[in-house]
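Example record

The entry below shows one chain as it appears in the dataset: sequence first, then structure tokens.
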Amino acid sequence: MIDIHHHLLWDQDDGAKSLELSLEMAQMAAADGITHIACTPHANDYFDYDPQAISAKITELQHLLEQRRIPITLGRGCDFHTSYDNIQLAHEDPTRFSINSGSYLLVEIPDQALPPALNEVFYEMQLDGLIPVLTHPERNLTLQRDLSRVKDWLRSGVLVQVTAGSVMGKMGKTAQRIAHEMLSKRWVHFLATDAHNVTSRPPRMRDAMELVAEKYGSDYAHLLCVSNPLAAFMNKPLQPQLEALDLYEDEIPKSWWQRLTGR
């Protein structure tokens, strides 16, 4: 499995608080079957995102993993918040925040409301050659009440990442219900841990992958946990996806009989 959303780096944000914890998280991830991790520190008003400093930490941590024979390949990404400064920096240097300097960019939204002009932000990112990946929409209170915005974004080419913990009910019952609603419609492209520690936010995906396989099919589970995140990690196009449900049917003009009968 490949994890593209993971706060593994120590003393970088609200994730790992020490190098020892980073190593413990990596060991736990490897034991769970994760082989690749994109280290994705926050870039927001509280945490500065310095690509060179982050890359240096990744190099140091990768060396220690190899010494300890922990079979994890690390990459660099970002938990990108849509502040004005971040948006400007991403426009000037589109690969500054993206996964391994490729096209895929994780875009984090708050757990409460939605940022203003988010449609325009996604559109401008795509003009700059980026592929926005909306992180954990199932945890946003506004989207929990109305998923129509997610439908619009999916139609425009935005991809969706759901937290593995949400699938398992670790992020609350509502987040779990919304996660499964999107999964049942195949609106999700990635599962990821969004790991911050080894206790409340651990780096585990195996149980979520197995549950998705049981409920929605093994092919879909493999796409979400292996094929799609590996493509993002390697900056490759996604392979053909399973057809999403309830995404375009309301755009099909109704016949005169459907309009007459209200069907």
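Notes for this example: The first strand starts at residue 2 and ends at 6. The chain has a mean pLDDT of 94.
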